[in-house]
Design brief:
mainly alpha; about 50% helix; 3 helices; two-stranded antiparallel ribbon; binds zinc ion
Protein backbone atom coordinates (compact mmCIF):
# COMPACT_ATOMS: atom_id res chain seq x y z
CA UNK A 1 0.00 0.00 0.00
CA UNK A 2 1.36 3.41 -0.94
CA UNK A 3 2.08 5.73 1.96
CA UNK A 4 0.27 9.04 2.36
CA UNK A 5 2.68 11.73 1.21
CA UNK A 6 0.70 14.54 2.72
CA UNK A 7 -2.41 15.28 4.74
CA UNK A 8 -4.67 18.25 5.32
CA UNK A 9 -6.56 19.24 8.42
CA UNK A 10 -9.88 21.09 8.43
CA UNK A 11 -8.14 24.45 8.78
CA UNK A 12 -6.34 23.82 5.47
CA UNK A 13 -2.94 23.20 7.05
CA UNK A 14 -0.90 20.76 4.96
CA UNK A 15 1.50 18.30 6.60
CA UNK A 16 4.11 16.52 4.46
CA UNK A 17 5.46 13.02 5.06
CA UNK A 18 9.08 13.38 6.33
CA UNK A 19 10.18 10.62 3.90
CA UNK A 20 9.61 13.15 1.10
CA UNK A 21 13.00 14.70 1.87
CA UNK A 22 14.53 11.72 0.02
CA UNK A 23 12.50 12.44 -3.11
CA UNK A 24 13.56 14.58 -6.08
CA UNK A 25 12.34 18.17 -6.01
CA UNK A 26 10.00 17.54 -8.94
CA UNK A 27 8.21 14.84 -6.98
CA UNK A 28 7.88 17.07 -3.91
CA UNK A 29 6.45 19.78 -6.17
CA UNK A 30 3.88 17.24 -7.38
CA UNK A 31 2.78 16.39 -3.81
CA UNK A 32 2.48 20.06 -2.85
CA UNK A 33 0.59 20.94 -6.03
CA UNK A 34 -1.75 17.98 -5.44
CA UNK A 35 -2.51 19.14 -1.90
CA UNK A 36 -2.99 22.79 -2.91
CA UNK A 37 -5.53 21.75 -5.55
CA UNK A 38 -7.41 19.89 -2.81
CA UNK A 39 -8.00 23.27 -1.17
CA UNK A 40 -10.16 24.07 -4.22
CA UNK A 41 -11.40 20.58 -5.15
CA UNK A 42 -11.61 18.32 -2.06
CA UNK A 43 -12.17 15.10 -4.02
CA UNK A 44 -10.36 13.34 -6.86
CA UNK A 45 -13.01 14.20 -9.41
CA UNK A 46 -12.75 15.39 -13.00
CA UNK A 47 -12.32 19.04 -11.96
CA UNK A 48 -9.43 18.06 -9.68
CA UNK A 49 -7.56 16.23 -12.45
CA UNK A 50 -8.37 18.92 -15.04
CA UNK A 51 -6.68 21.55 -12.87
CA UNK A 52 -3.76 19.25 -12.02
CA UNK A 53 -3.24 18.51 -15.72
CA UNK A 54 -3.33 22.23 -16.54
CA UNK A 55 -0.87 23.22 -13.81
CA UNK A 56 1.46 20.23 -14.11
CA UNK A 57 1.06 18.37 -17.43
CA UNK A 58 3.72 15.77 -16.46
CA UNK A 59 2.15 14.93 -13.08
CA UNK A 60 1.78 11.23 -13.95
CA UNK A 61 5.49 10.69 -14.48
CA UNK A 62 6.30 12.62 -11.29
CA UNK A 63 3.83 10.47 -9.34
CA UNK A 64 5.18 7.22 -10.81
CA UNK A 65 8.75 8.26 -10.04
CA UNK A 66 7.81 9.05 -6.46
CA UNK A 67 6.05 5.71 -6.02
CA UNK A 68 9.04 3.81 -7.46
CA UNK A 69 11.58 5.62 -5.29
CA UNK A 70 9.80 5.55 -1.98
CA UNK A 71 7.58 2.44 -2.01
ZN1 LIG B 1 -5.47 13.67 -3.26
Amino acid sequence: MAPDWASRCASGRISLNPDLVRAPTGCIDYVITHELIHLIHPHHGLAFYDLLQTLMPDWRSRKQRLERLLS
